[in-house]
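Quick start: what a row looks like.
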Amino acid sequence: MDREMARIRSKLPVFKKRIEEADAIVKKALGMMKKPYVSCSFGKDSVVLLHLVLRHSAEIDVIFINSQYCFPDTYEVRDTFKEKHNINMIELKQPHDYIDIINQYGLPDERTSYEQKKVVELLKKDLANAFAYEHGYDGNFWGMRKDESRKRKWLLNTKGPIFWAEQAKLWRISPLTNWTWDDIWTYIHFYEVPYSKIYDKHGFCDPKQIRNTSYVTTDGATINGRVAWLRYYYPDIYNRLSQTIPEIRRYV
């Protein structure tokens, strides 16, 4: 812990700038919108985003899409936030079963780009967008960062941290636009933000490749050892999953 605090102190000037930038984005968005909400998966970026926004608006609604195949650690963090911050959480149950989707579209590594896009729409975008539109939300805080991918960098460079999403009919707000992976962890440790312990399980893959997604996936299975990681750290889940989807055994 002493080493971690020394690392944090060395980064305080940049860290302070990141927080000031994020606070300004949050304040501007809250001044523009009547009924925004926070998208939260309770992954590392999401808990930082949620903690940031709650400092400005403790009553804001928080929407969590429950795939019903989240890691146990995800549910633990969700419950910790509910208890500690008494958040107004709305939990949307995923109507499309992951196993059924795999049976229809195949494993993620086997899908075409069109099939993968369709799966993402089914599992995430359509559900949240439809709920937001139906209930009159006009803004959505989400934890998107430029350094996560080229596509996200292009989007945020082009649109900026606050932009109108025509298809969803609401504003998208990205307070963490310029944050790095290191910034996220500095914030978590500095403010002692609860986080999923999946990120402490570093075997088999680069820590930066650990994702708080459903465990019913093989994204990065061979490159990043995702399935081997799952079998080692969550053997009960792996055994149940491999009985249902025997094809995943080829990745370990």
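That is the whole record. DSSP finds ten helices and six strands in the chain. The first helix runs from residue 2 to 10.
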